[in-house]
């Protein structure tokens, strides 16, 4: 199995280029992040070139976080802001050769939000396609993000079908899916054609995957048997020194 370190959480206490180097030293096969925009692309590119790791994904900005915004693309009336965030993410992704962008929906509900989200996703997919970039949408759980527009894989699957763009995919974060829907391995297999990236963390505490209610040794085996080709994203909160939480990776590596 190959694993990607999500640097939004792992080594988040270090500057992003140093976090990339730490992921390499720890044996990860790739990295991904949340919001890298404060860091000059030259610094990130240099760290990626030095380590040989690829940055697999990044997120669109959340918007006005002081006001509690958590994404813009499902907010009716905020299309200009949402598309500026999409443009920004594509430009950054192109500069560091990142193959996928998570377009964040935001806190919203109702038909107008659905229409706004689909229209902004169509825009994102059209802008990203010439660069070979996939657009990801990710259901978030109702405990961490109450009121978030996108909460289930079933909802995501319907949106993906209605938008109808080949580069629109599902971010299957096992942590969120377990909290909202469960039945992880059936869902992974059934949704494989629309999944663009897989992430994981223990449930319910979002820590390293060697604890909690999900048996990740089993889940990883199912993903391997599916022939899943790309690294799985370790997106968990280490709660201190990241290196001290990597027993699961060492055990898997043997
Ligand atoms: O929280 C998550 O699971 C996401 O993957 C994210 O990108 C930030 O909300
Ligand atoms: Mg996630």
Automatic annotation (TrEMBL):
The keyword Isomerase applies. Gene3D superfamilies: Divalent-metal-dependent TIM barrel enzymes. The keyword Isomerase applies. It comes from the Bacteria. GO terms for biological process: glyoxylate metabolic process. The active site is at 138 (proton donor/acceptor), 235 (proton donor/acceptor). Residues 20-251 form the Xylose isomerase-like TIM barrel domain. Keywords: Isomerase. One of its GO terms (molecular function) is hydroxypyruvate isomerase activity. Belongs to the hyi family. This is TIM barrel protein. It comes from Halovulum marinum.
